[in-house]
Design brief:
With 368 residues, the protein is of the alpha/beta class. It folds into 3 domains: 114 residues, Helix Hairpins (Orthogonal Bundle); 160 residues, 3-Layer(aba) Sandwich (Rossmann fold), CATH 3.40.50; 77 residues, Alpha-Beta Plaits (2-Layer Sandwich), CATH 3.30.70. Helix content is 49%, strand content 17%. The chain has 12 helices and 10 strands. The strands form 2 sheets. Strands 3-2-1-4-5-6 form a 6-stranded parallel sheet. β8 and β9 form a beta hairpin. α1 packs across α2, α1 runs antiparallel to α3 and α9 packs antiparallel against α10. The protein is elongated and about 115 Å long.
């Protein structure tokens, strides 16, 4: 399947590249020929009509563009014949052909950009390799939105994927600062096409977030990246399905390793902005080493810092949130001097030291 995809990719890409090369050559030839005709006609006007080169150029351009102001015109027979042959028969035709070649070249460029075959000259950008197996459009929309909220909006985003061979979906296509290249992270030529040597951040998504064999593909991509000359400060985030492969990913060059959690693409951005934060967030889901427990306690108008300090001093854990008695909302990380009134307190505890509701109540009784 991979060989079939690479053949289709090569055939389409080479066809578009061949057309682009031909159109570029045709455009260059037309421009050169047009300039020769203009220069020759200006010279003949100075020679046959006695015009200055400025007047000769003015006559040439107004005639060539079919504007024809009539303020200057050829009066000699040879001058008129030269104008008819060079401009009427040749120049106007070449000008029209040049315009046609230009529009064809622009149209071909637009098609290449749409289909993901345009090699953007990017630097300091964010490269995302692969696409989620399901609802990739919604995932990328949330991911890019959070990128902007996290202060990374100055970095252009490029997606390397084979998921959108006919173009990005409408909403993604309208997103500013986003481009894609149709290819695969397991193909070195495609990595070079996305200017990987100048990239700032690399995000490698698991091909299938619920299939451990996706890790083999990710490892292949990491190995290829390692063989290329990347920036010394590049940050590589890789999704890992099987936790046993984390050490292999790290040895292969991944700086940040995280489980695929498709419902929260924000976790990926947290890892880029504050490396290590993704591990804290993962622990919220896995409870490995830490337990986030809810305790029923009666607290009335006590400062948050006193609650936190008292629990830490008793080695019962760290208070992280509470349920506000007035609004019923869960308040996380309030300011230290905030006065707390609640009957429900959330505490992060160690799983090797069980903490009961009674322990928390007794510890806080000294300040209540």
């Amino acid at each position: 399947m991979n060989l079939f995809y690479r053949f289709i990719h090569w055939r389409r890409n080479n066809k578009l590249s061949f057309e682009e090369d031909n159109l570029k050559k045709a455009l260059i030839h037309s421009i050169i020929l047009l300039l020769i005709i203009i220069a020759l006609h200006v010279y003949l006007m100075t020679l046959l009509e006695g015009f200055s080169w400025q007047d000769g150029l003015w006559l040439t351009l107004t005639t060539l563009s079919t504007t024809g102001y009539g303020d200057i015109s050829a009066s000699t027979s040879l001058g008129k014949i030269a104008t008819v042959i060079l401009l009427y028969f040749c120049g106007i035709f070449i000008l029209a052909k040049t315009a046609g070649d230009y529009f064809d070249y622009r149209a071909n460029t637009r098609i290449k950009k749409m289909h993901g075959f345009w090699k953007w000259n990017m630097s300091d950008h964010i490269l995302i390799i692969n696409t989620p197996s399901q609802k990739g459009e919604q995932f990328f929309i949330r991911l890019i939105k959070h990128l902007h909220l996290s202060g990374l909006q100055s970095h252009t985003v490029q997606i390397l994927t084979s998921k959108f061979p006919t173009g990005l979906p409408n909403q993604l296509a309208r997103t500013a600062g986003l481009a894609h290249y149709t290819g695969s992270g397991t193909v070195t030529e495609d990595l070079l096409a996305v200017n990987v040597s100048k990239v700032k951040y690399i995000i490698i998504l698991a091909k299938q977030e619920d299939n451990r064999e996706s890790d083999s593909r990710t490892f292949d991509i990491l190995h290829r990246l390692q063989a290329l000359k990347l920036r010394a400060d590049v940050l590589i985030l890789a999704e890992c399905v099987d936790d046993d492969n984390r050490s292999r990913f790290r040895q292969a060059g991944a700086n940040i390793i995280i489980r695929p959690i498709r419902a929260y693409p924000e976790m990926l951005i947290r890892g880029l902005v504050a490396p290590g934060a993704e591990q804290i967030i993962e622990n919220l889901f896995s409870s490995q080493g830490d337990l986030y427990l809810r305790f029923q306690v009666d607290i009335n108008n006590i400062s948050w810092k006193d609650i936190v300090c008292q629990l830490i001093q008793q080695d019962f854990g760290t208070a992280v949130a509470y349920i506000d008695s007035d609004t019923g909302l869960c308040i996380t990380n309030p300011h230290a001097l905030t006065k707390i009134t609640t009957r429900s307190l959330f505490v992060m505890t160690n799983d090797d030291k069980p903490v009961t509701n009674q322990d928390i109540q007794q510890a806080l009784s000294k300040i209540i």
